[in-house]
Amino acid sequence: MSQPHDIVIAGAGLAGAMLAAELGRAGHRVRLFERRLDPRRADAESGRSINLAISVRGLHALRAAGVEETVLAEAIRMPGRMVHVEGREIFSAYSRDPERAINSVSRSGLNRLLVEAAAATPGVEIVFEARCVDADFTDHERPAAVFEHPDGRRERVEADLVVGTDGAFSAIRAAMQRTGRFDFSQEYLAAGYKELTIPPADDDRGPHGRFRVDPNALHVWPHGGSMMIALPNIDGSFTCTLFWPFEGEHSFATLEDADDAGIVRFFERHYGDAVPHMPTLVEDWRRNPTSPLVTIRCRPWHRGRAVLLGDAAHAIVPFYGQGANASFEDVEGLVTALASHDDLDDAIEAYEEDRIDNADAIADLALDQFVDMRDRSGSRTQRLAKKGSQFLGAVVPFWWTPLYDMVSFTRIPYAKALAKSRRQAAVLRRIAALGVPVVVILLTLAFIATASSES
Ligand SMILES: Cc1cc2nc3c(=O)[nH]c(=O)nc-3n(C[C@H](O)[C@H](O)[C@H](O)COP(=O)(O)OP(=O)(O)OC[C@H]3O[C@@H](n4cnc5c(N)ncnc54)[C@H](O)[C@@H]3O)c2cc1C
């Protein structure tokens, strides 16, 4: 490390808490401010189980933070998707390698664990119920953030480095926007989301124990323009998420004025095999909010010595399950940049250069994945295409790596993964134009070459 810095972080969510722990461990003095209650307090619990899929990138960062084992002990492996089509369940592995799986992890549990890690790190101080309301970048050497406390008191806190990890609607980013020459875009999907629940079974003697459906899969009910997914929780329940358009056919508007029986009838028609497992369907539907889905991009990610990280820098739609994974990679990026540059401005530049194009790439990939899951996951052609891609990855691994594997099971930078998948697809199109016999001969030769190189 060059020298210890005095660092202020706004937002103790997944990224901010991990960053505080890591920077504290590296010897910096860290003050972390969070607008919500301390998640370790009993009254901070929301009561609902909400989960996240964590894959290789996130796990790598969690290992560096010393909490990977604890997280995995409470996680559920999901080696593939279980697609529900007309009452049938069709399993489709994420990778040809059965060891590869994404992991369903409790979001609140993970946040609490990271806050505990930060709080236990010497040099880290955490202030809860302090909402960032402004930031000031006029003094290049000493940027400041302004926090409001529950009694209305405003506190201006200066530091060598200010980091905005205050989520998609970041106050630090809003202050940067007001300084000019700051690119910003915000794009809402026509679809939003609402969470429902499949509770644990009454007894644990069913085919899946206390889980009502197979816990080792991410379940998808595709329906053209809308879909429902479900991820397992360690307590035997599943968190279901509806991704439906706000308006139009099969939309949230469709059920706006429906009575209880109308809601149940609609779900029976479209999610027939799930409804018997959803005894709290109507209650969940009425209680849980419908929230929007947004992609936020901005450039640059810094103003002087204030930087953005995580969703504050790049909010993406959740269909690749990479928002938190990408945010954890940002943490590793910033920590490495600070450790390897004597000059703070150089470190900030290096961090941004390393991460910004990758964030753009995963934002694009996540938008594509929505269409893939919603419109194509029920299709036989799509399943064959995925199998074909996995087959190519096995017979010509030096040339072909399935995109899903690159994103979820490697740490290849997102932008490189996206570029490589586009190159692969272009070559495949050129080969396909040569005709079926040539493709078969090339694949056979490749298979022989790979098999002999492995023997
Ligand atoms: C429905 C859904 C499903 C998802 N599923 C996945 C998934 O499966 N896998 C995955 O990797 N990602 C997933 N994500 C994305 C993931 O949740 C985010 O990318 C991740 O939480 C980003 O972490 P963060 O710390 O940057 O932001 P957040 O987790 O949003 O944390 C921001 C923190 O800042 C605090 N804060 C906000 N404003 C202020 C303020 N003004 N002052 C002080 N504090 C403030 C907030 O209270 C919060 O604690 C999903 C997102 C959604 C919406």
How are the secondary structure elements laid out?
Blueprint: E1 6-10, H1 14-25, E2 29-33, E3 51-54, H2 56-64, H3 68-73, E4 76-78, E5 80-85, E6 88-93, E7 102-106, H4 107-119, E8 124-127, E9 131-136, E10 144-148, E11 154-158, E12 161-164, H5 171-177, E13 183-198, E14 218-223, E15 226-232, E16 238-245, H6 260-270, H7 281-287, E17 291-299, E18 302-303, E19 306-308, E20 314-315, H8 323-340, H9 344-376, H10 380-395, H11 403-409, H12 414-433, H13 436-454
Parallel strand pairs: 1-2, 1-12, 2-8, 5-14, 12-19
Antiparallel strand pairs: 3-7, 4-7, 5-6, 9-10, 10-11, 13-16, 13-17, 14-15, 15-16, 17-20, 18-19
Helix pairs in contact: 1-4, 1-8, 2-8, 8-9, 9-12
The chain binds flavin-adenine dinucleotide (FAD).
The site of flavin-adenine dinucleotide has 31 residues, from helix 1, strand 3, strand 9 and helix 8.
Structural summary, described in words:
The protein has 455 residues and is of the alpha+beta class. It folds into three domains: 6-76 and 106-186 and 294-368, FAD/NAD(P)-binding domain, CATH 3.50.50.60; 188-292, D-Amino Acid Oxidase, Chain A, domain 2 (2-Layer Sandwich), CATH 3.30.9; 380-454. 39% of the residues lie in helices and 24% in strands. The chain has 13 helices and 20 strands. It has helices at residues 14-25, 56-64, 68-73, 107-119, 171-177, 260-270, 281-287, 323-340, 344-376, 380-395, 403-409, 414-433, 436-454; strands spanning 6-10, 29-33, 51-54, 76-78, 80-85, 88-93, 102-106, 124-127, 131-136, 144-148, 154-158, 161-164, 183-198, 218-223, 226-232, 238-245, 291-299, 302-303, 306-308, 314-315. An eight-stranded mixed sheet has the order 6-5-14-15-16-13-17-20. A six-stranded mixed sheet has the order 8-2-1-12-19-18, sandwiched between helices. A three-stranded antiparallel sheet has the order 3-7-4. Strand 18 (302-303) and strand 19 form a beta hairpin. Helix 8 (323-340) packs antiparallel against helix 9 and helix 9 (344-376) crosses helix 12 (414-433). The protein starts with 5 loop residues before the first strand and ends with a helix. Flavin-adenine dinucleotide is lined by residues 10-16, 33-36, 52-53, 131-132, 165-167, 171, 193, 241, 310-312, 318, 321-325, 327. Residues 10-16, 33-36, 52-53, 131-132, 165-167, 171, 193, 241, 310-312, 318, 321-325, 327 line the site of flavin-adenine dinucleotide.
